[in-house]
Amino acid sequence: MFEGFEQRSVTTNELSSNLVQGGSGPAVLLLHGYPQTHVIWHRVAPILAERFTVICSDLRGYGDSSKPPGDPDHVAYSKRVMAQDQVEVMQSLGFDRFVVVGHDRGGRVAHRMALDYANKVSHLAVLDIVPTRTMYATIDQERATNVWRFFFLIQPDPFPEHLIGADPDFYLRWTLDHWCGTPGALTDEAVAEYRRCFDAATIHATCEDYRAGATVDLVHDQADQERKVSCPLLALWSRTGSGSLYDVLSEWRERGAGSVRGRALDCGHFLPEERPEETTAEIAAFLSE
Question: Sign of torsion, CA 6 65 202 181?
């Protein structure tokens, strides 16, 4: 995977961020989601690298990046802090302005980045999410059943950590299989990497990520409810996943001050692995406008 890419570890503010970098041209930062790592981009990144400098980074708490301990207010895993991590990573690599594409939790980090660092983000793409504030404000029985992790993973430490840790292989494999809508799309090599990184520290950190989403992130979102994403915005989502329960494009148009476009793809949650060519083509077309 990632042939021709360089693996690097970048340290900023005592936090080590693992990433791979390849290609040349304008910079594109790709951020993964739960419960994966930068490896989700292994089919997309090489194609984009034909035209762009592509950086695929592990978020704090995930993959081979640092996993700082949680705190009572979950600030360490707030999307504001996680966005700051990645901005500092890009600055350390020499990029003051760049594109950010985020899938799942990475999309939430990318959204916050576009708000807090509007001068840094030239384009924003979010994959298979609606805004966090929308998720919690519109919960009903059907949606809660679909996004139950938004309530399970936020329970106090060590409850979800203990249950997941009792059989992490089963939990991870079930999650990947349940979310994937294309049999065989997740390669054995990629799944092995996800499993290698899904240790006790990651399980705790990822629960903290969700706990932050239900607490401090909502505080930040409420304070910024009138702010809009100023750069062009692309939204792609699964036709069969939780996005089918929302008017995804309408939600993002409410939060974008500029051009907002997007569509559903005929696949499950893991767009970059299930529909890599289609996902890449949509991103490349978006960046060509």
Answer: negative
